[in-house]
Design a protein that fits this description.
mainly alpha; elongated
Length: about 210
């Protein structure tokens, strides 16, 4: 992951292959396939990204079922405790990335489906991750002409950012970005006064 963050994609790819060869826990294997998918997405290899992410999602679904079935099973608990990357095993992150792949391929219907699915399950990323998914879903809905639904998503995400960063006071790039998105959607809804207010708010934050 560190190599990917540094833009060293070939190095990251090699490390992921090695990690996969050593992994024994299904929880780790599912998380590694997720990272392989994200890396492929970064390299614009959408076919490979989709294959890896679907493998990850299928394994995570099995993990979730196993947790439910073995709720009081000591062996299952030990297997989870042995996992080194269990924190990255939630379904929401993988569903989000599958949605991004479909968005990149302009499969807007599939992208919407996966973003909505990501919102319907718990996420290790917490409220910040939910806000990011809402913003991406809003982009899809905007492109599909579902402007009122897009606006609602953005307003929900804005409320989350207010809770995280502080209402009306944050200079965080996420707040500036969502002001721009809100301005665009209001404009497309012919709500010009509201659109202007959000663009002005974005401009003020950028100046600061």
């Amino acid at each position: 992951k560190v190599a990917r963050y540094c833009g060293e994609y070939d190095n990251s790819d090699e490390n992921m292959k090695r990690a996969l060869s050593y992994a024994t826990s299904v929880f780790d294997i599912s998380a590694i396939y997720h990272e392989i998918g994200v890396l492929a997405l970064k390299k614009d290899n959408f076919k490979h990204a989709k294959m890896a992410l679907i493998k990850s999602l299928n394994l995570k679904t099995k993990c979730k079922t196993k947790r439910i079935q073995n709720n009081n099973n000591k062996q299952a608990e030990e297997e989870e405790s042995d996992s080194i990357v269990l924190a990255f095993s939630d379904e929401s992150a993988t569903l989000h990335q599958l949605a991004v792949v479909n968005l990149k391929e302009n499969n807007l219907s599939e992208a919407e489906k996966f973003f909505r699915s990501a919102l319907s399950v718990d996420s290790e990323a917490g409220s910040g991750g939910r806000a990011a998914t809402l913003r991406q879903l809003a982009r899809v809905l905007d492109r599909r002409g579902k402007l009122k639904d897009a606006l609602q998503c953005l307003q929900d995400a804005r409320q989350i950012y207010d809770a995280i960063y502080g209402k009306g006071n944050s200079l965080h790039v996420n707040v500036s970005g969502i002001e721009c998105q809100l301005g665009i959607v209001h404009y497309r809804l012919d709500q010009f006064k509201e659109s202007e207010q959000h663009f002005e708010a974005e401009k003020k934050k950028k100046k600061k």
